[in-house]
Amino acid sequence: MNEETKPWYRSKTFLGLLMAVVLYAMRTLGVVDVDDPFILKVACQGGEFAGILIGLVGRTQARTRLTLGSSSVGREA
Q: Which helix (H) or strand (E) holds 13?
């Protein structure tokens, strides 16, 4: 079998969702501190939305399977 694969870190889906999770966690835990709470809220929620959108677009455009390790694992030379 000659399947095309790519590492997980090159996936728009994974990176977009990771971005959304990290921004949500930072906002929830109060890691990010800005004088104006409105600006903080808009920036974080906008980033979370963008991450989710990137994840959705990446999933719909995906043409290859993801691998968690080396792409040569399980392949015969």
A: helix 12-29
Amino acid of residue 72? S
Q: What pLDDT, in 10s, does the model give residues 28-68? A: 787 876 677 787 778 878 888 898 898 888 888 888 887 77
What's phi and psi for 66, nearest 5 deg?
Answer: -95, 150
How many other CB atoms sit within 10 Å of the CB of residue 42?
Answer: 11
Nearest to 23 by CA among 1, 69, 15: 15
Give the DSSP letter string of 14-74. HHHHHHHHHHHHHHHHT----S-HHHHHHHHHHHHHHHHHHHHHHHHH--SEEESS-TTTT
Per-residue pLDDT, 70: 62
